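notes to self, project folder thing:

trying the whole complex as one job this time. last attempt i did each chain seperately and stitching them together was a nightmare. four parts in total, labels are on each line so i dont mix them up again. if this works i'll redo the older ones the same way
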Amino acid sequence: MMISTRGRYALRILVDLAEHCSEEYVTLREIAERQEISEKYLESIVKLLVRAGFLEGLRGKGGGYRLGRRPEEIGVLDVLRLTEGTLAPVACLEEGGRPCARAPHCRTLPLWKGLNDVVTAYLGGFTVRDLMGKAEDGNDYII
Amino acid sequence: MMISTRGRYALRILVDLAEHCSEEYVTLREIAERQEISEKYLESIVKLLVRAGFLEGLRGKGGGYRLGRRPEEIGVLDVLRLTEGTLAPVACLEEGGRPCARAPHCRTLPLWKGLNDVVTAYLGGFTVRDLMGKAEDGNDYII
DNA sequence: TTTAATTCCTTGCTTGACAATAGGAATTAA
DNA sequence: TTAATTCCTATTGTCAAGCAAGGAATTAAA
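result (full assembly):
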């Protein structure tokens, strides 16, 4: 499985929050219940999202989380790169990866390069806004 | 990293063999040396390829491996599905996977479905023939 | 018939990432 | 002061990836 739970849950958190942004702050407990994911595990994922600015957290009573940017400004690719570390199909195509000595005559590198491009282009075309459901799906988000 | 060494090495083995098919059978040792991969590890990968018919093995002195089909008849997608198990981005899209209860209203499922389609379409367009190098790259393969 | 060279088969090992849990400190509103 | 939160630092269990070892079966050639 290419995409780990971290990445998948991260997106679900963001969409959930985007769809329930009428309330100022949403508690992690609410999200966890709606998404049927362990609250404790979500915590570790939310931490990443806060650090990256996708989410803002407020402590204390009445606290919770809300989006740090508008849904259409949160790119799916960015979220996945954050949570997955890299989406490159092979090590030699990772951002900070040391170049492979075989690269100049590697037969498979072009294949992986192309795969990387295809995946990046596809995921790069989505934002959290695109993942949000319609009102009849239980979406609170207005306008 | 999406693609494990098993899948990557499997393709390199097949391409290596395709490029050196002038000799009837090629020993695993030769392949391992050319590809700079542990012979023992290659053994476990080659076993899969033989079972699937991509390769034929001949035991004993003078033995080795050769392609079980022509390079243009070996699909990259098929090889990767064999060695990787599945290429589906998430569990709910795996072949024999049990359907997810959240699927009907899952916000992210369409995203993963699309990603799966994009990846499958891309990889499905390649065969081992497409990965083979030109003669000047040290390719023995003639016509 | 023996020997050397191979593929085949089973088994075990090590490591690291993933997935999740636990417990408490810091903060905030009521 | 209290209750409700987010934040922070660990720890644990599980599993697959990536090997390595040793020997059995087979084959060609000396």
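what i see at first glance: Chain A has one domain: 1-135.
need to look closer tmrw
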